[in-house]
Amino acid sequence: MSTHREQERERTAAPPAAWRMLALGVAAQAIGTLLVSTPAYLIPHLHLERGMPLAEAGLLAAAPTFGMVLTLVAWGALADRVGERWVIAGGLALTGLFALAAAPAGELGVLAVLLGLGGAASASANAASGRVVVGWFPRERRGLAMGIRQMSQPLGVALAALVVPPLADAAGTAGPLLLAAVLALLVAVACAIGIQDPPRPAPRESAAPSPTPRRLGPYRRDAFLLRIHLVSALLVVPQFTLATFGLVWLIAELGWHPAAAGVVVALSQFVGALGRIGVGWLSDRVGSRIRVLRWVALAGIAAMLALAAAGALAWSAAAAILLVAAVTVSVADNGLAFTSVAEAAGRDWSGRALGVQNTGQFLAASAVGPGMGAAIAVLGYPLAFALVALAPLLALPLIPAADRHAD
């Protein structure tokens, strides 16, 4: 019996190189996320010190996300065609160059355009690093591996929460952008050296033609992928609401010192990163991404309503604790949905499908900044947070009944 278990573990073990690819993919997307998140953590500086309206600051915060929307599918298609290594390294190098160009920009429109271009370039890591995980890790280990890969986003946000406010106070908007530029260029070099495209299986021969023509892809088989895309677009609303306005809520509404508020937000992102690993591991254990995704959506409803209640009652300490919990829940779905999309699409289509997945998420996210900024201005934070709870509620009936596997 022990021999059988040892053979099973050996069969499902990932090669040592897979962990190196995973670490580089995490670093690449974390640095891209640092740039994309930087405008959100400039909001206290722009709104409270420079008097920029909250809706206008939210629009600037959405600029990198909007740029990502325009290029995610294209980066994914390029990764399907030429591989992951140069897509990640080249895109991250462009990210660094655009951040470098944005650092001295003083006019709001120019800054928004350059941040949008930086976001467009950083999308390379979002699409291609997911392919690296699917290509290097066996199915029985993908939930954990993708959970680790998905922790790159909250780690990037946590880094932004810690470094952007003090750098902005000391050097204005240029300081955080210069840091993002230097880190992006360094990690681009590391990825160019260290990433190796995953081995691709030989084409399978079949006497009968495939019922789904290759040119039509997995979207013609059933509605599974489209439903996951819609669910993810809805579940990203709480995530980006808290990432964009959580810091300024603690400072402006609850009276927290900016440094202390930054620590709380960074802690929430770090705990959220661990939560992604946990739900990925759980999905491996229960053998279903979809079942765990449904649990996360239910938890998201409760978390946003509890946060709204704490804000309405001005319970400052409780609000901070609930913010950490709500952020953890709000980011937990990404790895589950991402893995589901990659597994359902198959290796030949995973880059494009993951690009579509991220496009839907970032389309929704790009509307969160200006939309929630306006809602908060009219309704206040507690009612706006309660309104956000509708997003996971609407996602519940759209979650498919069971997982799909193309490979």
Description of the molecule:
- The chain has 407 residues and is mostly helical.
- It has one domain (16-197, 219-398): Growth Hormone, Chain: A, CATH 1.20.1250.20.
- Helices cover 81% and strands 0% of the residues.
- It contains 17 helices and no strands.
- Helix 7 (139-150) packs antiparallel against helix 11 (258-286) and helix 10 (224-253) packs parallel to helix 15 (350-379).
- The protein is globular.
- The protein starts with a helix and ends in a 12-residue tail after the last helix.
| Percent helix | over 70%
How much of the sequence is in beta strands? under 5%
Going by CATH, the architecture would be Up-down Bundle
CATH class: Mainly Alpha
Rg on CA atoms, Å: 21 Å
Condensed summary:
The chain has 407 residues and is an all-alpha fold.
Describe the secondary-structure layout.
Elements: H1 2-12, H2 16-41, H3 43-49, H4 54-82, H5 85-102, H6 108-136, H7 139-150, H8 152-171, H9 174-194, H10 224-253, H11 258-286, H12 289-312, H13 316-331, H14 333-345, H15 350-379, H16 381-388, H17 390-395
